[in-house]
């Protein structure tokens, strides 16, 4: 089932999400719906707060990065064809390396893309969909996607990483998105829309 994605301005996007345990109801179903929702919106990551559920869960599938031109030679795209994962109660244990800028977008903030600087390497622990505890390290686009989705669990959006000036320049666009004044071809909930759709 495709779920509506909540847009910029929705309170859940500003909230710190809660951990879940193995008794969380209908988790398998929720994960499946999240994948369906993400693929329908052509995203490479989706966090539960983006569908209005403030729990520490996100999913990723980086395979579209492999379809980009030059991806074969791009070391940052290494392993992306099999980067389809579920992260439950993740903890980024450490981030290291050089910071690099990359133009990020977000399904909750359609049609805006801005450079965000993040460290190149992360160490993360999390539970997978079988509730096995996993510890891994990532770099390249995989680390980038995880850092972006992990931020959602902390109530942080990529726009929060931008300079005050940049944010000011985007302010009008962001307010319009929260009102539903934007072009998007997937189902969304706009918190400030006059006629809720
Ligand atoms: Ni996002």
Identify the notable features of this structure and list them briefly:
single chain, 197 residues, alpha+beta, Peptide Deformylase, five-stranded antiparallel beta sheet, two-stranded parallel ribbon, 4 helices, 7 strands, 24% helix, globular, binds nickel (II) ion
Number of strands: 7
CATH architecture: Alpha-Beta Complex
> How would you describe the oligomerization state of the chains in this entry?
single chain
CATH fold call = Peptide Deformylase
Helix-strand pattern = EHEEHEEEHHE
Low-confidence stretches: none
Trace the largest sheet across and list its strands. Answer: 2-3-4-5-6
CATH class: Alpha Beta
Shape descriptor reads globular
Number of continuous helical runs:
4
Structural class of the helix and strand makeup? Answer: alpha+beta
β-strand amount: 25-35%
Bound molecules: nickel (II) ion
Share of helix, binned: 10-25%
Write the topology of this structure.
Layout: E1 5-6, H1 27-40, E2 45-47, E3 57-61, H2 64-67, E4 84-106, E5 109-127, E6 133-139, H3 140-153, H4 164-179, E7 188-189
Parallel strand pairs: 1-7
Antiparallel strand pairs: 2-3, 3-4, 4-5, 5-6
The protein binds nickel (II) ion (NI).
